[in-house]
Amino acid sequence: MKNRCNFVYAGLSIFMTLIFMQPCEAQIWKKIANKVEEKTTDRVLDDVDKVTEKSLDKADSQSGEGDESDTQNNLNSETGISSSETPSTSIKSYQNYDFVPGDNIIFMDDFTEDQVGEFPAHWTLESGQAVVNRVGNIPAFFLTDGNYVKVAPKMKSKEYLAGPFTIEFDTYNNGEGSESPVLVLKYNDQNGDSQEGEVTFSRGDNNGYGSISLDEFPHTTSAQFPSALKESYENHWHHCAVIFKDDQLKCYVDQYRILTMPNLGCAPNAFAFEGIAEQDSPIMITNVRVASGGEMNMVGKKFTASKIVTHGINFDLNKASLKPESMGTLNMIVNLMKSNPSIKFEIDGYTDNSGSAEHNLTLSQQRSEAVKNQLVKMGISSSRLSTKGFGDASPISENTTLAGRANNRRVEFVKV
Question: Do 327 and 246 belong together in one domain?
């Protein structure tokens, strides 16, 4: 009987122990789960840090970051439209490019006149947060916070786009967050009320994303990037451009014409940039250039003018090496000369007044010769072309503003 009671007591003790252990066991497992969660979070944060550092390293290596004195010298020198040269943006890959920018630049900003960490002087902030920063040694406008962050250029009038116009800008993508710049085109509807259409340059990646879409216009559409552009999009600079003429809007990224809307249904009169941005994944833009006019179509037409003034032939900083996006204007010149086989041109190069007069004279001569060499490669006889550099002589605009200096940096084709 005693043994039986002991057995019962032992059983009851085990039973009671198990009951009281359940809360303790739950707490133990909860602690273990919390510990695992903490470790997992730490691991994710470490991975994010590694990805961010890797992206910044790529940006630095592509931009050719130098010491502070070299960077400052570059920023004080003549600049034009600039984007990192990569195999996907070579002169050869632009051989069918047909974008020709307008012939009168009304706004230009490469952010070289602004201090890093400050809001740029030539813009207004409508919502969110934005600041000038660098990608490597390239100054750029970082839209850093907001859903949506929105910025607009400071212009003398509320409506400054009329008739044909072109807008160009460069954007960088490091593969983090949204980072898709939205070009806002403002217009008045049929009732005279102000409206805003959106041209969204959705960033590309290896997962098949990448497109341009038109929204909030009377007529809308969208188009995908080609596969080659999607796959090479991350961690590179890309040149974006739009041209509006006769109700038609064309949109480009690098050498590709992505989208054509033949009947937009409105006449844009101003622009802005917006998008979803965060501190760790800002929208980055630079080399914003807006011009009136654009897309001079001279194919099959008899040329009767005395000269053509172009602003679409651009060069690397303080060099005579052509930017790939120059091919749109060069293709136009080639087509014109093939349609008019008796025409001969003197290629005249001009700079702004940055740097010494002697340096600018030499640089302009080298650049005019670079243009001639490229045209010869494209099938034009060298006997039909001559060159001359004028440096900063004969400015056609003031040298006191970014837009004025951009107008003075030009290549003229003078009929001889």
Answer: no
